[in-house]
Amino acid sequence: MPVANDSAATTAATRSLAARLASLAGTLLAGFVVLACALLLTVRFLVLPHVESWRSEIAQRVTDALGAPVSIEGLATGWDGWNPKLVITGLAVRAREDAAGAPLLDLPRVEATVSWWSLPLADLQLKELVIERPSLAISRDAAGRIHVAGAEIDPESAGDDTRLVDWILRQREIVVRDALILWTDEMRRAPQLQLDHVQFRLEHPL
């Protein structure tokens, strides 16, 4: 009989532990749902409605980062399912010495859908980035330095900042439609090369 009593006590303890674990799991799940709902409501009502008012500040920060004048005509927000979406229209980058001249980079429309993986990874992750009808000017000066949208790249230097390229390669999907690329080679004094209606897709499976 003592063996039977021990077996019954063990079974009861196991059931009690299972019940406590199930209760803890349920509490954690409910807390996660509440936190997710609160985060969605915060983004929906406190963040997205004010993005347009930050347009000038965003343009100035990009200008400071690139060292070239940047202008943005419009910012709009929306949703792609459960994912926040940012639509940028009329983004242009011009030469520092000719701020009123033709853009070195012209992005008529950019749609960026943010992934919620940005939160646990503490890094901006995009579910999708779509760039419509961009125009990009690339040139090589007489000294062999490459200029891309106003940014100078020295092919002989090993210390160039690659953070932007690394970030692009981490994104899930990037789509470029009907791009216009202009290549000017002052080093070889060759005629300008023009590539039109360029299509590009980069996919990075998770």
| Average pLDDT number | 78
Give me the Rg, rounded: 26 Å
Structural category: alpha+beta
Largest sheet: 9 strands, mixed
Order of helical and strand elements: HHEEEHEEEEHEE
Oligomer: single chain
In the predicted model, the low-confidence regions spanning at least 5 consecutive residues are none
Count of alpha/pi helices: 4
Q: What level of helicity do the residues show?
A: 25-40%
The best one-word shape is elongated
Alpha-carbon distance between the two ends: 58 Å
Strand content: 35-45%
For the secondary structure, the number of strands is 9
Report on the structure:
The chain has 206 residues and is of the alpha+beta class. It is 34% helix and 38% strand. It is built from four helices and nine strands; from the N terminus they run ααβββαββββαββ. Strands 1, 2, 3, 4, 5, 6, 7, 8 and 9 form a nine-stranded mixed beta sheet that branches. A hairpin with a 2-residue loop joins strand 6 and strand 7. The N and C termini lie far apart (58 Å). The mean pLDDT is 78.
Q: Keywords for this structure?
A:
alpha+beta, nine-stranded mixed sheet, 206 residues
Task: Provide a brief overview of the structure.
This protein has 206 residues and is α+β, with helices and mostly antiparallel strands.
What's the structural blueprint in terms of helices and strands?
Blueprint: H1 2-47, H2 55-66, E1 70-80, E2 83-93, E3 105-114, H3 118-121, E4 126-132, E5 135-140, E6 146-148, E7 151-153, H4 163-170, E8 173-185, E9 190-203
Parallel strand pairs: 4-8, 5-8
Antiparallel strand pairs: 1-2, 2-3, 3-4, 3-5, 5-6, 6-7, 8-9
